[in-house]
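Q: What would this chain look like folded?
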Amino acid sequence: MKYRMLGKTGLRVSVVGVGTWQFGGEWGRTYEKQDVDAILGRAKELGINLIDTAECYGDHLSESLIGESIQGNREDWILATKFGHHFHRNFERTDMFKAGDILQQLEASLRALKTDYIDLYQFHSGPDSSFDQEELWTLLQKQVQAGKIRHLGISIGSNENIHQTSLATEVKAGAIQVVYNRLDRGPEAEVFPSCTEQNLGVLARVPLASGFLSGKYKPGATFASDDVRSRWDSSKLERYAKEVEVIERDEVPAGTNMAAWALAWCLKHPAVTSVIPGCKDPAQVEANAAAVALVEDGHPQEV
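A: My prediction, written as structure tokens:
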């Protein structure tokens, strides 16, 4: 495993993390404690130390499963979670960005994760009107001072949200999370340069384009009704599948696993600290970690 410094936070994170939206039950299957134990256990063996989750991956369900799994070795992990949404049922949430609501969410996340502190607490894909509440960031700073939060971050909902990115230092956030992959290079235009200028860590979410950059899904692919991808427009599914066929043919070296190549592609950008792909089982954890062998040394955040 390789490690990088997450911007100005000083957190030393593995370049491949574990994304855990799937633990909330919206990706075609449900998870039990033994499933999560197996996934996180293998991740730890491979040197992965970063877990990214959220309050609304289930009603703190993903957090609860993680908390149960790592309560014996919490100090070995960098825990990143998010705030700002209330989960009602699969695929249905409402925004909750008022300062009082956030305090309740923080306490609920701490209980679910079975910890007394969160390493990276991230504003979760909210509108600028919610982001621009001074009282929200004042409250969060008090929680940092109280030791319940180590560092603040911003998970931007739009890959072009330069407004929230540019204000990261002002609100004392040290990291940006953004969708970035070979099919979606939007952050390269403005977001990444701003992150570099401010020395912000960057977590690249959806680095495999929701599984399409694994090469597994071909044109005409369909998904079960309990899989979030079934809610996508069919033209987007078809476009992704066709673009991936071209990328696999023209860009991926012969004999190279496409998923590992796609993760390494993200990690080569000088602004990107770590990728946080989802994984359904230990075998996918291993496949994700294999990307490290394709990443050359010399990245500006390497430690």
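Residues 234-250 form the longest helix (17 residues).
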